[in-house]
Design goal:
single chain, alpha/beta, Rossmann fold, 3 domains, 7-stranded mixed beta sheet
């Protein structure tokens, strides 16, 4: 059965064409032939550029023309090495400093390029509208950044705000003007001198961060209040490190390679499928019956397991009044009882906190060939039971898998050979990402799809780094407050075609880079952990625990989630 989510060939061609056109536009505006888009980031001569500017972050597959032009101006007019040497370390200060630098570059644009100006205005106004649609918390960090963006834009580009924006930012703008007005005033006169301009820009960043900190102390701004509005790149600090590490050359007989050298030769044969797309319906029903029998044989109650997961998944929700208390305020609904039995003492009510499971959990399962040993059955039992328990605890759950769409590179390797087998081609296989159960669907609706884990015809090779990045992007878009990403794997990335055609450690380095980016991301925090089925994965993931599946699965086995993410 054809996948409903697989990308058709013509769609892939259109996407690749859009990406090439965006890259060409970037190089034209930047006047730099080495500028390139790589997924969700910008590179120059293979080195990643971190631009922590809210309105410049885009969704796949390609940025809008305005975002392309704005980034092009940044590359054309900003010395990135100088910028990094001046950057503050505080995340909030860094966002403010980057904003100021971006508008400095836009102020230097050629006025004759009216199309570029129009495109950038459209991109900024779209971001502004989207931010308003999110109903900014008027005391949040998000509103500070939103307001300052408009103030900087007016000061440097003379672009006035509209009435809808004015209504939202009026009070914050007045407060900010009193605080940073002295540093805003000289900016326009210093746009031609990046180093001199940085002095008042850094002062603005420092003062805004202090203002946010003061508000936090008064309990008006929490650590994550409106932070999603910043839309900072998930791994901006890692990109800074990669930019510097690209200068490292051979030393003592070894070469240091940054993850920035990770590329994909072709995505033309990559697919994303549902578990129900892998096998015919009749076989899936038979597999589901087998899985049900295996789950029942372990004698583990999903309901009891759900109870044990509550400390991990539940958080304080709203408040309600609990009647029948001996202390608290008088309960108006019990006035009759007060008159009839004034000594009963249970006619008061207390305000109590109610727990809620504002959480989601993703399981990413390695479905490479090495998992074809007997352990794949136990992994299916483990994940099926955990998924049901997480849902019973009130959270959402997603189960994903990854493998390759063919052995030894498949059609991707044939394309490489047809192109003359150029050296260092990057990832040289076709990937297959599997959605066994979507977070938007219940466990019951996904039961047949989950059963596909018991059939191993699709277990081939593994490109772990890209699979982790894919799972990350999916869970990062979820609205839940608590998010957990659990990798279940028996070892390192193993995909023969890519490993034979590139440097040693190519896939492993990329996996480490993605895992580090998730773990260090402070703007969109996700708890990442790994369950290691052979040995350990401590050197790859921030949290990792071994799990022995050679013995029987017991209630104790399922404590691994609580141990992996210990609740304070």
């Amino acid at each position: 059965m054809a996948s409903e989510v697989a990308q058709p060939a013509d769609g892939q061609y259109a996407r690749r064409l859009q990406q090439r056109l965006a890259a060409a536009g970037l190089r034209a505006v930047a006047a730099n032939s080495e500028a390139e888009f790589r997924g969700l980031r910008v590179e120059v001569d293979g080195r990643p550029i971190s631009i922590v500017v809210p309105y410049l972050w885009f969704e796949p597959p390609t940025p809008s023309p305005g975002v392309v032009d704005a980034i092009g101006l940044r590359l054309a007019h900003s010395d990135h090495d100088l910028h990094l040497s001046l950057c503050p370390s505080s995340p909030l200060e860094r966002v403010v400093f980057d904003l100021a630098e971006q508008f400095r570059c836009e102020a230097l644009q050629n006025p004759a390029l009216v199309g570029v100006k129009s495109n950038i205005n459209t991109a900024f106004e779209q971001w502004s509208s989207d931010s308003l649609a999110r109903r900014l918390d008027e005391t949040g960090i998000g509103l500070l950044i939103f307001t300052l963006s408009h103030m900087l834009r007016y000061r440097l580009l003379r672009q006035a705000t509209n009435e809808a924006v004015d209504d939202v930012i009026e009070t914050t703008r007045g407060n900010l003007a009193r605080l940073v007005g002295h540093a805003l005033r000289p900016l326009a006169e210093l746009v031609d001198d990046q180093a001199a301009y940085a002095v008042p820009a850094l002062e603005i960043a420092r003062l805004v961060a202090e203002m946010a900190a003061d508000a936090s102390e008064e309990e008006r701004v929490s650590d994550d209040d409106s932070i999603s509005v910043l839309m900072a790149p998930v791994d901006w600090d890692s990109l800074d490190a990669e930019w510097h590490s690209a200068d490292v050359t051979e030393s003592a007989g070894t070469t240091a390679h940054a993850a920035a050298d990770y590329v994909v030769f072709t995505t033309a044969h990559d697919i994303e499928v549902l578990g129900t797309d892998l096998y015919r319906d009749g076989l899936l029903r038979h597999l589901r019956s087998e899985l049900n029998a295996l789950v029942s044989a372990q004698a583990v109650s999903p309901s009891r397991l759900a109870k044990s997961l509550e400390p991990l998944l539940l958080s304080v929700g709203g408040q309600l009044w609990q009647s029948g208390a001996e202390n608290g305020r008088l309960d108006p609904s019990r006035l009759t009882q007060i008159v009839a039995s004034p000594l009963s003492g249970d006619f008061r009510q207390l305000r109590v906190q109610t727990p809620e499971a504002n959480a989601t959990m993703t399981f990413l399962i390695d479905t490479s060939g090495s998992m074809k040993k007997q352990r794949y059955e136990k992994v299916a039992v483990l994940v099926d039971t955990l998924a049901r328990a997480v849902e019973l605890a009130g959270a959402t759950v997603e189960v994903l898998g990854f493998t390759t769409n063919g052995w030894s590179g498949g059609r991707a390797r044939l394309d490489w050979a047809a192109a003359g087998s150029p050296p260092n081609p990057g990832r040289l296989s076709a990937t297959q990402h599997i959605v066994y159960s979507s977070a938007d669907e219940s466990w019951r609706r996904s039961r047949l799809s989950m059963a596909a884990m018991l059939r191993t015809d699709h277990y081939r090779e593994g490109v772990d780094g890209e699979a982790l990045e894919w799972a990350w992007q999916r869970i990062a878009a979820r609205p839940e407050q608590r998010r957990y990403l659990v990798v279940i794997s028996d070892g390192r990335p193993t995909e023969s075609s890519t490993m034979n055609a590139n440097r040693d450690g190519y896939l492993l380095d990329h996996l480490r880079h993605v895992a580090r980016s998730i773990d260090t991301n402070r703007f969109n925090p996700i708890a990442l952990g790994a369950i290691a089925l052979d040995g350990n994965l401590d050197d790859l993931y921030p949290r990792s625990l071994p799990l022995d599946l050679d013995s029987e699965i017991t209630v104790g086995t399922y404590k691994i989630l609580n141990n992996l993410f210990p609740h304070p």
